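Re: export button greyed out
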Amino acid sequence: MEFRYSMPTEIYFGEDAVLKNKEVFSAIGKKALIVTGRRSAKINGSYEDVRQALYETNVEFVLFDEVEENPSLETIEKGREVGKKNNVDFVIGIGGGSPMDAAKAIALFIKNPEVNKDNIFSAGKLDSIPVVAVPTTSGTGSEVTQYSVITTHKDRTKKNLGQTIFPKAAFIDVKYTYDLPYNITVNTAIDAFTHLVEGYLSADSTFMSDIYGEKGFELFKYCFEKLVAKDLNPEFRRKVMLASVMGGIQIAQTGTSLPHGMGYPLTYFKGLPHGLANGVLTIEYLKSFKDQTKINRMLHLLGLSNIEELAVILNSLIDVKIDITEEEINEYSKVLLSDKRKLRKHPEEVTHEDIVRIYSNSLLRN
Ligand code: NAP
Ligand code: ZN
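Workaround output, generated via the alternate export path:
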């Protein structure tokens, strides 16, 4: 057996994690750029906690609260300008995956003034200034991954920057998610679930990464029941956040696989939220495996007997109706087939026809 395992992010999980560990901020820097979306961080208490922690530890800060969903490279450049002008020495991302990913990208852009939206994907390996992450959704796991997924309008898609930007610290307090609306709770939980699935079935999965996957499936047994019953109590919020963190630690080792690669054009061209874009493809992706051994183990941990039972759960949570043509499916499939790194994550041989079948059976059913 051979594996490499690294998870450099310091995780502070629990009630009032930000305020109880406020000295972590002052140990990292003297002036922070806080990166958030437009509204939610100011409503769910996360921004206020961070603001107070910084105030009490004499860390100055400036706020950049213009991150949109699926943030663009243009927004990253704008955030860099604010950070540069104010001489910040670290970045705090508060929010869902969009502000956390933006915070990572902005931290990298601040450190490397020569980088811009036109040359970032051809740049070599780069450093960033330190990043701290405070998640307010339970889904992306971005607080414990090195990835930063950004929209590039030039390439008309979303892409991982291809850099390694692990947050130095992640403060995870589920109370910020208590008022997350049902639809966003579902979309983001399904994102976490697809991370667990794709990481577990990845060609790069290892003994270590499987531990997180299997623990995550155990948590999802409970989380699916609660999601279906629309009973989003604090215990559910805690477990789905833990599952999301498990998924993040796992994909930090394995990466994601076919559904994520196939989901990006569904988000870019059809506006599907990230979690749904992957989730709608998951059942057909699972059915495409010739070797079902690990899938059966996963189903067992979820308390299910077969893929159809999982399909019933996902179908009750996901209602995706998009207009898509066979030509578009053909085009998206070609693009995915050219992404050798994504394909390499799939442990079995995969053809153009396989990808078309997964898209078609998932999206052209009616
Ligand atoms: P998001 O795009 O960050 O946020 C979605 C919506 O939820 C926004 O309207 C946001 O409002 C709102 N929101 C966030 N927290 C809330 C709260 N506590 N209460 C109420 N509303 C809240 O959604 P996400 O699914 O978390 O992130 C998706 C992004 O993450 C995608 O770009 C995806 O590609 C990326 N991603 C990254 C990784 C990684 O490892 N780096 C993994 C998976 C996905 P505001 O805008 O007002 O904040
Ligand atoms: Zn994802």
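Residues 51 and 61 are 8 Å apart (CA to CA). The button fix ships in the next patch.
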